[in-house]
Amino acid sequence: MKNIIKFTTLILTMAFFVNCQEDDAEIGDIIAPSNLVITAEVLGVDAANPNGDGSGFVKLIATADNALSYSFQFGDGLEGVVPSGIDTHRYSIVGLNTYTVVVSAIGSGGIATTATIQVDVFSSFDDLEAKNLLSGGVGSSKTWYLDASLPGHLGVGGNIDIAADAFWFPSFFAAQPFEKCSDPISDCLCDDEMTFSLDASEQLTFELNNNGQTFFNAGHQAVIGENAGEDACFDFDTSGVSMVSLAPSSFDWSIVPDPNFVARGTTMNFSDDKFMGYYVSSSSYDIIEVTNSTLYVRTVDALNPVLYWYHRFTTTLPSQDFNSIYNNLVWEDEFDVNGTPDAAKWTYDLGAGGWGNEEVQSYTNASENVIVEDGFLKITAKADGGGYTSARLKSEDLYEFTYGRVEVRAKLPASIGTWPAIWTLGEDYQTNTWPGCGELDIMEQKGQDKNTVLATAHHPAVSPGSGDSGNTVLTTSTTEFHNYTMEWTADAITFLVDDTVYHTVANTPDLPFDSDFFLILNVAMGGTLGGDIDPAFTEDTMEIDYVRVYQ
């Protein structure tokens, strides 16, 4: 249907003069713009939609003699410098609203002429669910913090490039857990409070409290006359309240080269130049994901628009002191009865075949490979002629669970080429082919490095391959018992050794970590992680003191 264009024009000229000169338009080299004219075209106007089709788009055009640039205040709390004088602005407050647009034509010497125009615009866009999740609902407020416990709580990447899908999400840099909290230069970011509130008219507001210190990106410190040469905190209070308008994302998230990824597609625009803790001169944030307690956003660097900054937030102030939310012991094996493992709790994988990882052992349930003895489960890998035997226990069909804390106290084999693992697998693996079923490795150790342990989440977005993995140095892993722990929630999967967090994976709806998994304990030989086996190897054992699951 052909649009009927609606024009509204107002001419108002004001010149600002210096030193009480005569009212001349020209004072030396200073020229005041004149004949400022503003036109507004509400897009989508027709007989049935006299104030637009609900998209909220308005094309604003400002012209003036002797103007070098134009500054627009759009009347919805947003503003911008528009050198061409032509801007298509999207008004996203739902309903029919009248906005007063203020345009300043800027001439030589910075002298300006200002005019206003009123525009009636109808917008039908809303995302009430996002408003409720951000604020807690009408009449409520909710405070958010940078989720410093997660990798990528602050990250930067390039724009999505279909030909090179590495250039999406924080592919250039992703902060490790608490990386931006342990350095005095940047730790002011971690205690910022960001509060969303929703009033009875469903107007969303945002309040930043950064305790008088702002964390500035290195490229943006000139706005306060500083230059630290790196990202840094400065005593500069940017706290305050702003209005938040929601609009459909201007970015087409459907082109993301990940079939399992779906972004929300809603953009938050903050008035009065407010921002979410980290200063990159941007006040617009795409909501990638929002739940009751997690928020993931992206904003564009205003000075370097090829850079996209990513922030993760949570409603609980993160602490480096780990406190589990699970305290009810629901399943355990203390291995206090000598003999074969409890058949009500454990079954076995048997046989050879590489197990998908080029492993060289054959799994058995023989007592020489697996036994409960002296209060410990002992899984022993043995040289057997020209091959190797070992054992792999699992709780499949006996105990399976969704979410919780798993604690396993174990001492690992020391021999080169052994590959011990404490892990979980999605129970639907037979119909949902790996890695679609998901895999969570609570502890693995490479055959060539007995001073480090690993934790990994395998899922379609990162596997096959290395998975989403983290590691920590543990030089006594083969000589002492240590607690290997996984805390699995709907929002995050956290891996610890002796109650110290060393790897965290954000759990999002597109990942396969929201259904039942079962436990696996094994010692493999060789393969992709075990590597070359010591030619003198005879046998070695992983000892497990207990396995406990809390919910």
How many beta strands in the DSSP annotation?
A: 41
**SS-derived structural category:** mainly beta
Shape: elongated
Low-confidence stretches: 1-27, 162-167
Task: Tell me the radius of gyration.
Answer: 30 Å
Query: What kind of sheet is the major sheet?
Result: 10 strands, mixed
* Strand residue percentage: 35-45%
Helix share, percent: under 10%
Number of contiguous helices: 2
Amino-to-carboxy terminus distance: 58 Å
Mean pLDDT over all positions: 88
Can you offer a commentary on this structure?
2% of the residues lie in helices and 44% in strands. With 551 residues, the chain is mostly beta strands. The strands form seven sheets. Strands 24, 26, 27, 28, 29, 32, 37, 38, 39 and 41 form a ten-stranded mixed sheet that branches. An eight-stranded antiparallel β-barrel has the order 11-14-15-18-19-21-22-23. Strands 25, 30, 31, 33, 34, 35, 36 and 40 form an eight-stranded antiparallel sheet that branches. The longest helix is centred in the first third of the chain and has 8 residues, at 128-135. The two termini are 58 Å apart. Mean pLDDT is 88; it is low at 1-27 and 162-167.
Summarize the structure.
2% of the residues lie in helices and 44% in strands. It is mainly beta.
Name the features.
551 residues, mainly beta, 10-stranded mixed sheet, 8-stranded antiparallel β-barrel, 2 helices, elongated, disordered N terminus
